[in-house]
Amino acid sequence: MSYFVQVVVDGLSNGAIYAALALAIVLVHRATGLVNFAQGGMAVAATFVAFALTRAGVPVLLALLAAVVFGFVLGALLERGVMRHFERGDPDTAVVATIALLVLLTGASAFFFGYEPQPFPSLFPNRTFEVLGVFVSFRSIGTILVLIAVMVGLQLLFRSTKLGLAMRAVADNPESSALSALPVSRLLMIGWGLAAGLGAVAGVLVAPQLFISPGMLDFVLVYALAAAILGGLDSPVGAVVAAAFIGVAENLAGAYLDVVGDDLKIAVPFVAVMVILVVRPQGLFGRKTTVRV
């Protein structure tokens, strides 16, 4: 029984990594209506800023705050300088543009910092404690608590603030929002900035476990996209729950299904995601959209 609980706890720890980036994907989707493949590249770029500051002797917490500010500015500039030209065009073209941005940002990070993975200082103590035979790390607990705080903050932002409600209106119908005198371009810019700032938080939380490198979040981005889609692209709670489900399902499959093992365990949660989406296409916590014709 203790082994089962340990596998679940380790799965939740992995799920926290996926959820960190999934929340940023949900944020930019709720603010702009776009699935942003460049989210991982922006997060890595901001994390490298924090990395450079820590190497210069700046405390990790201050480096994190600086990375969030850098991420916000980077996201706003990319929206203003690149994505703005695709606002009224084909959404598929905009998605391709975000993939191009991902490649560009990854290359820029490699140019300035190299491809060699490097250790990143942790925001939380790198120690573990034992509870009834189960080992839990302070870093995992800290990451989960930060994610819960971010999840609650996003829920409040989009449900209880004028800014959040305005961003949701712009994402749902930019034309009607413009006719209602909402500053559409400015709100889209803010949405990209907030998502990139949140990506910086995700990167700083994840980097100590993965080691920082330009491709640090490439694999995580796949899981994060799956979690965001499974949970419902407009639901921060859904993204966190789905990421936890994916992390636990992957670990349990690798531990208990001999035919799966470590090599094929990645496929198990994605098969489950496909099955669930067939039954509930809008995701676990997503809203069902009704289109009148």
UniProtKB/TrEMBL annotation:
It is found in: Cell membrane. CDD domains: TM_PBP1_LivH_like. InterPro entries: ABC_transp_permease, BCAA_transport_permease. It holds the Pfam family BPD_transp_2. Belongs to the binding-protein-dependent transport system permease family. LivHM subfamily. Its main location: membrane. This is Branched-chain amino acid ABC transporter permease. Keywords: Amino-acid transport, Cell membrane, Membrane, Transmembrane, Transmembrane helix, Transport.
